[in-house]
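Field log, afternoon session.

UNIT: design team B
ACTIVITY: writing a sequence onto a fixed backbone
BACKBONE:
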């Protein structure tokens, strides 16, 4: 697969035009449960992609930050959620049980909107998606201010059945506060702690402690950026059930993930 091309020049007008013309795409990276005898896909993270005419993609690091700066991030995130919820509601051929859930990255700006939780509920109602299949990934930056609107949105989202995941865990300043006071169901270990496993002692100690703490709190742990089998095996032995990274799959278009699911979930493999 051709990778991102970070050097491409991007400006507000070009991004707005691409969004309005429907040039942006969603790719999906699997989350894999490694606690069983055979690894099993238990979810996907939806990731925005901006294809280039000659192949490759404009780096999300460029256009996501620009979307936040120019005010496009709110309609952009709404488009992502709508698209993902339509996928969740779409009947799967040959499926014998509900498909894997999906997670969506949400900008901190959304949580400051008084009616954000209601807008998510409206999307779920409109598409017919199961709220329990949707996870919203938030960074510590989204809840750093601890303002009442943000906290109210997190509580309301839980009430309608949507799960919350604390993304890039360990890279902020007050991680333990969020574990204690926010209604989250999942923490995602930042890839910066994973890349040195199992040989970098301090990273290993932090990851191991986080896994144990999350277990005590009843939280799911997802390790991001897993690229090597030795990393996955170390995480599995330490009790981290779910991993995400190039080891088990790069982000891919939905038609490819559908083909994988047809084997995993009751299709041609049976």
């Amino acid at each position: 697969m051709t990778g991102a091309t970070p050097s491409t020049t991007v400006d507000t007008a070009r991004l707005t035009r691409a969004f309005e013309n429907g040039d942006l795409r969603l790719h999906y990276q699997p989350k894999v449960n490694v606690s069983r005898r055979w690894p099993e896909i238990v979810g996907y993270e939806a990731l925005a992609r901006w294809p280039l005419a000659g192949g490759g993609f404009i780096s999300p690091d460029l256009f996501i930050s620009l979307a936040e700066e120019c005010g496009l991030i709110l309609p952009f995130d709404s488009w992502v959620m709508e698209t993902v919820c339509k996928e969740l509601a779409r009947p799967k051929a040959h499926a014998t049980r509900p498909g894997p859930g999906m997670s969506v990255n949400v900008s901190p700006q959304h949580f400051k909107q008084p009616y954000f939780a209601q807008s998510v509920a409206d999307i779920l109602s409109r598409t017919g998606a199961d709220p329990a299949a949707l996870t919203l990934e938030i960074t510590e930056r989204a809840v750093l201010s601890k303002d009442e609107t943000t906290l109210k949105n997190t509580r309301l989202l839980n009430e309608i059945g949507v799960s919350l995941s604390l993304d890039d865990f360990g890279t902020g300043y007050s991680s333990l506060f969020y574990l204690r006071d926010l209604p989250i169901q999942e923490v995602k270990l930042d890839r910066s702690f994973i890349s040195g496993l199992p040989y970098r002692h301090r990273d290993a100690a932090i990851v191991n402690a986080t896994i144990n703490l999350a277990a005590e709190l009843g939280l799911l742990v997802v390790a991001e950026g897993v690229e090597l089998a030795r990393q996955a095996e170390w995480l599995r032995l330490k009790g981290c059930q779910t991993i995400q990274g190039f080891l088990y799959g790069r982000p891919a278009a939905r038609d490819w993930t559908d083909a994988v699911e047809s084997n995993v979930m009751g299709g041609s493999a049976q």
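LOG NOTE: The chain has a mean pLDDT of 85.
NEXT ACTIVITY: expression trials, pending approval
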